[in-house]
């Protein structure tokens, strides 16, 4: 009996990773009805991380926390035993901006800190924090405040709160906090900041880094990843004692991907679009690297990578919805039958 693992990221705005796996699996079985299909939803540490954890057996703990502009949002953390998974995007992310209106100068990461606090109060001692998709450039000040740190940087309450707590951050960028390649300069415009606001944000981050350095005796503003998520990476490193790890690597570990590989004939991964970003820390490249010699193919909405680039990442073939339906809007609106047809093609090409 052939055995296939479907470890896909979401198709953003269209399907969850679990729905991608269900559709592909249905197509595989049309060609080989006895195919064993194992769904292992994955994410790269940004939006979708919480859903991937829940699909892997974590329990969702609902929490109401502050959104990026202060309004309450219904969110939560995923828990298994004493491990909590917190997704910044689901509480402090761009997707939580009211009406989608950017707030580059006022958006805050406070809600993420509130989620971490809720997980600690519930008895969790290891917090996995995915920080992609941030709406703010606050240097993580909001998180620090929510955990007991004050604006004058009295850290006693924060240190008490984090005593015995391990924080691991899923982070896929190596930007410093400040400067030409820092959080404000590189990511501020994506969050709605104009050139003058970028300068103001960078100056504020510089003052924040100076304050933290004076209080802690170490200056981590130039540490790789400090500029991640509008400077949340900096606060995590400098004040939460966090370890930064590649997002997909951390998620694969959380969902038990490696445990599923034994006896697999094929690994199918995927995401909405395959492009140059795919090769730098995204789910498809991470799954292919972790597949331990098992053939890997990818499904996607659209593919901008040639076969040689894909093979260099460990992907032997890619199957795109746009191969079947050139109308992108229809691919987004009606992806399931198209994915099922791609599943049939994959079964015919790669399963015997």
UniProtKB/TrEMBL annotation:
SUPFAM superfamilies: Glycerate kinase I (SSF110738). It comes from the Bacteria. One of its GO terms (molecular function) is glycerate kinase activity. One of its GO terms (biological process) is organic acid phosphorylation. InterPro entries: Glyc_kinase_flavodox-like_fold, Glycerate_kinase, Glycerate_kinase_sf. Pfam families: Gly_kinase (PF02595). Keywords: Kinase, Transferase. Belongs to the glycerate kinase type-1 family. PANTHER family: GLYCERATE KINASE. This is Glycerate kinase. It comes from Kribbella capetownensis. The lineage of its organism: Bacteria, Bacillati, Actinomycetota, Actinomycetes, Propionibacteriales.
């Amino acid at each position: 009996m052939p055995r296939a693992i479907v470890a896909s990221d979401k198709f953003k705005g269209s399907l969850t990773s679990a729905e991608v796996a269900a559709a592909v699996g249905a197509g595989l079985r049309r060609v080989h009805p006895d195919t064993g299909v194992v769904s292992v939803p994955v994410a790269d540490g940004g939006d979708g991380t919480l859903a991937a954890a829940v699909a892997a057996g974590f329990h969702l703990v609902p929490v109401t926390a502050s959104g990026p502009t202060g309004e309450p949002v219904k969110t939560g953390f995923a828990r298994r035993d004493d491990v909590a998974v917190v997704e910044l995007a689901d509480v402090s992310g761009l997707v939580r901006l009211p009406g989608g209106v950017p707030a580059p100068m006022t958006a805050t990461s406070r809600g993420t800190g509130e989620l971490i606090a809720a997980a600690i109060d519930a008895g969790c001692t290891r917090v996995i924090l995915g920080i992609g998709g941030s709406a703010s450039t606050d240097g993580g000040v909001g998180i620090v405040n929510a955990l007991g740190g004050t604006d004058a940087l009295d850290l006693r309450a924060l240190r008490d709160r984090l005593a015995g707590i391990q924080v691991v951050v899923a982070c896929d960028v190596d930007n410093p906090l400040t400067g030409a390649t820092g959080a404000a300069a590189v990511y501020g415009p994506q969050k709605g900041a104009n050139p003058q606001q970028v300068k103001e944000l960078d100056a504020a981050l510089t003052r924040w880094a100076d304050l933290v350095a004076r209080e802690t005796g170490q200056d981590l503003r130039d540490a790789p990843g400090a500029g991640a998520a509008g400077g949340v990476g900096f606060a995590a490193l400098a004040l939460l004692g966090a370890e930064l790890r590649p997002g997909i690597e951390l998620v694969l570990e959380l969902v038990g991907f490696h445990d599923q590989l034994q006896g697999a004939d094929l690994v199918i991964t995927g995401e909405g679009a395959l492009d140059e970003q795919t090769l730098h820390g995204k789910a498809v490249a991470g799954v292919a690297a972790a597949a331990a010699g098992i053939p890997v193919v990818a499904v996607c909405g659209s593919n901008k990578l040639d076969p040689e680039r894909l093979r260099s990442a460990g992907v032997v073939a890619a199957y795109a919805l746009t191969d079947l339906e050139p109308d992108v809007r229809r691919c987004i609106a009606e992806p399931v039958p198209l994915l099922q047809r791609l599943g049939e093609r994959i079964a015919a090409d790669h399963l015997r």
